[in-house]
What does this fold into?
Amino acid sequence: MSVASKVATLAWYLRRPSLYGELFRRVRAMRVSTSNSVEKAKREKVEGQRWCEQQVVPAARLLESLQLPTATPAIETLHPTEWAEAHAAVNACPVKMGGPANLEVLYHLCRGMKVERVVETGVANGWSTLAVLLALRANGEGRLASVDMPYAKMNNEAWVGCAVPQALRDRWTLIRKPDRDGLPEAIAALGTLDLAHYDSDKSYEDRMFGYHLLWAALRPGGLLLSDDIEDNSAYADFAKEVSRPTWVLPKKPGNYAGVLIK
It folds into this structure.
């Protein structure tokens, strides 16, 4: 990152007092970052991908284990009006944000498990948010609390969750903070969780922080989903730590999601 880019990033944070805690955490992380850290991250990704390749199973295996229907009709087919509205909103968004998770699996897990209290991290356009909220509406009850910090310097605040139609937002709370600050707030608002979906900070340390906090809040039988688990060994290490059934699902070549059952 150039000096000018660092200065612009600093100025962005300084204009947002609610993010000062995250700024200080990132400055501390930069001070200890070395070339060895970069090489370590590369090695961890190779190891993470290898582990995922050894563990991956079809989504139908997970659904079958939970005694749920293995067919996962597309959300586009089940909710065409909301899907079309979401696509129009995302196409109008001037900021490129992260891609969607495994939406059909997420939707059908929420439907089949009849979840009522859900927390997610990482909203971006809001595709996962849309999937969860559509499932909650179809279930007839439930709330979703989402934690998402705006992208630095990208001015995307107004577009976070743009895929979510206004008609679905009465069940939704968006907490515009980093995970370290926002996750405790989201969990406190909902209490014991039925499902948690992690799709935010990708570093080993940040994942482990989020996993431990969400796992502690889940009810027995609740689900912890995590995207992009091939980035490092955090998910594999956490799965080993809690010694509970885990499922690695394919998203696209080289990209995986994990599901842990408490």
